[in-house]
Amino acid sequence: MLLAVGGCAETPTPTGSVDIVEFSAEGTSGTAFGSYVLVGDLLSTGARSFSGLPFSARVSAPGTISPKMSVSVVDVPPNSRVTCRITLNDEVLVQRTGDVPGRDVVCIAPETIG
After folding, report:
1. What is the pTM for the complete model shown?
2. How many Å apart are CA 43 and CA 49, to the nearest integer?
3. Mind telling me which InterPro entries this protein's record contains (predicted)?
4. What pairs with residue 73 in β-bridges?
């Protein structure tokens, strides 16, 4: 007599880690808007828009990335400041602070990652 025992196979757990990119902006309250992108140009169709400060978005980073972020602020008191920051796995890649009113604050990772 032959006895067969069946069981459920476990789903394999991925062994590689996933990189997490965080785009964030902070500063004086006011009307803030901007965009960020993992790969491509800030004006590309792959860019995502945001409004309001503080702002933070965490996204997984599959493959090669070239993160960029731009922040604009209007209707704030003179001599205000705004900061953008891009981190990879909680390590700061780039951080820029600018005076308001003034030019947009732009963060661009110093090199392609991945």
Report:
1. 0.80
2. 10
3. MmpS_C
4. 32
